[in-house]
Amino acid sequence: MTVEQLRVRPSDMSDEEWQVRVELAALYRLCVHYGWTDITATHISARIPGNDDQYLLNCFDLMFDEISASTLMRVTWDGEHEDKSRNLNTAGHLIHSAMLQARPDINFVMHTHTRAGMAVAAMPGGLQPLSQHSGFVLGTLATHPYQDVTHADDECELLAKDMGDCYAMLLENHGFLTVGRTAAEAFFYHYYLEMSCKVQVDVLGATQNPIRITDAALAPLKEMGHPKNGPHGNEEWPALMRMLDRKDPSFRQ
Q1: What is the β-pairing status of strands 43-47 and 108-112?
Q2: Residues forming a β-bridge with 43
Q3: How far is the C-alpha of 220 from the C-alpha of 235, rounded, in Å?
Q4: Numbers of helices and strands, H then E, in the chain
Q5: Which pLDDT tens digit goes with each residue over 181-240?
Q6: Global pTM?
Q7: Domain architecture of the chain: domains with CATH
């Protein structure tokens, strides 16, 4: 089946689910725009409004720039999906189902393997306060040690446990993930964490004695970026959607 054949909205789909699908597809396209992709690997998920039995995830055989609202799959918590001709990313299912079930307060989960993200996730001490951007995520950042998160059910449960009530997490030697009550908020934390990682790699590549933000100066940044003062990202989200519409509006199909 071609990508074009997949892009058909089911007649029985609610407007609420369709809107979530459009926003989730937008997150995939934003990953393309910002260079956060890893061929067809990594994944982003969303809770389906009014559906306690399934959530939305990408199929494993599409590049992120091919994903649209209608190509996203409904997946049960047990990993079942309707179209058996399409491949489910097993690792993605384990990570996202564990996170969404453990965190009823969030609706979107983003996971990427960016070069800067993997680099910082391999550094002792993880993310350091080297930029203003880092302050927005350091107040809600968890860390998870590297293990076989891709196939072990119990390990994915531990991953959700280590996340706690944070909205971002470094996965050591792996990458990172962020969550949000809205698509905009999941993107907000992903953007600021990725930018912070890029800056850290650049700074530590130039000097081993960088200027770090003091605790006193860091405190208000953490407060600004804390989830209790959100949902974050709502101001930028409409502009991001307009940008995607200018580039390629097929994500809405």
Answers
A1: antiparallel
A2: 111
A3: 20
A4: 9, 7
A5: 999 999 999 999 999 999 999 999 999 999 999 999 999 999 999 999 999 999 999 999
A6: 0.94
A7: 15-247 (3.40.225.10)
